[in-house]
Sequence to fold (270 residues):
Amino acid sequence: MSEKTLKVEKIKKNLRTNYIGIKIHHLTEVTSTNDVAKKLGGEGEPEGTVVIAEVQTKGRGRLGRKWISPRGGMWFSVILRPKLHVKDTTKLTLMSAVVVAQTIKENLGLSAEIKWPNDVLVRGRKVCGILTETTTSDNGNVNFAVVGIGINANVDLTVFSDSLRATAMSLKAELGRDIDIESFFCALLEKFEHYYDMFKEGKFNLILAEWRGLARFLGSLVEVALLKEKFEGTAVDVDQNGALIVRLKNGTLRKVVSADVTLRKLRKHG
Ligand code: BT5
Fold:
């Protein structure tokens, strides 16, 4: 068992939010914070409750992929109770990507960018992944959502495999020093509440506008990998529901709801 490094008391003292993170379950080791948050959500924990762990033994990404979650990382889940149809779940992921990217920029001065749908990158390498899961009623309305966010905060990259080191980055490695975990986490939760309030006020279009500004890959040539198919095209935009719009070589537009996107050739800027 590892020791706890996150100081929840310090967070509680400094956190300026009304409901996000007012209740924090801080665990030494879990399978996945999303598992714990889903259980707590089912038991009626209030909106804004956060579950954070030092280590995850079965951290997961989309489609059952593994999320490597060693010590030093920020592995947490937020329970939300939005009025939302399940088909709009991606909106919460896009919102959370804006939250993480903006916090990295403002709190640490690094230039973070977003890759559709759920990655935050620093200098083209993944520092954060987001996994939003929901439980729904028969009509498809969301009972509650769990937004799981994994940030390679003070992760030592030597614990990653060679292949993961080629695509991943940590904030510590990028800065050459440990980040102040508690102050970063407070800033993140405050921003989360700000954007989630906007979301609940029906202002997703404003969040999407910010998302576009952070999504440097828009306008670039990408490869899109679906479960059973791959194709190339130019990433044009995201629509109101968070789907990616890709222009194929023959000029037709194709909408993608769930996929992996790899950058092929970056659009020339300026
Ligand atoms: C994701 O999936 O990026 C979503 C990751 C969500 C993690 C959080 S941590 C808190 C909560 N509890 C959980 O169990 N999950 C959430 P996806 O887009 O499918 O990307 C998965 C891929 O990212 C893997 O197949 C690896 O290639 C790569 N990967 C795994 N661990 C990584 C890490 N720590 N940093 C960067 N890349 C990683």
Summary: The chain has a mean pLDDT of 95. DSSP finds seven helices and twelve strands in the chain. Helices lie at 8-14, 33-42, 89-108, 162-167, 171-175, 181-200, 204-214.
